[in-house]
Design a protein that fits this description.
mainly alpha; DNA polymerase, domain 1; 0% strand
Length: 126
């Protein structure tokens, strides 16, 4: 188990492999992996687990809410024929409120486990 002084990315990886895999259905676990790798680790992964604040989470969620995902993740640059962001015309593809809520819930679940394991004093994603 990673120490509380480790990064959020280290903790999320541990949580996925050692905890969530035993508590979730296979499809749910697969979706958690995608969510964590696509959004949580790039957004909060470098921060120390014990140093993440509610403000960090709120700022990161607001950034996800307002940023074009096509531009951020380079989706258009991977296409055979660039259509929007790669040719200088941002498509403004935003995450849906449901997707944002799902991402937030995955983070809350992981941090709730960290609280139960006494790695952090409180869940800053609540």
């Amino acid at each position: 188990m990673p120490s509380a002084q480790g990064s959020v990315a280290e903790y999320l990886t541990y949580w996925l492999e050692a905890v969530a895999v035993h508590q979730l259905r296979e499809n749910t676990h697969t979706r958690y992996i995608a969510c964590i790798n696509r959004y949580l680790i790039p957004g909060l992964g470098k921060k120390k687990l014990t140093k993440v604040t509610a403000k960090d989470v709120r700022t990161w969620l607001n950034q996800l809410r307002t940023t074009c995902q096509c531009c951020t993740r380079g989706i258009d640059t991977g296409r055979d024929e660039p259509r929007c962001c790669a040719v200088g015309s941002c498509c403004s593809k935003r995450l849906s409120p449901l997707t944002l809520a799902y991402i937030h819930s995955v983070l809350k679940s992981a941090l709730e486990h960290a609280v139960r394991e006494e790695e952090i004093p409180r869940n800053v994603a609540r």
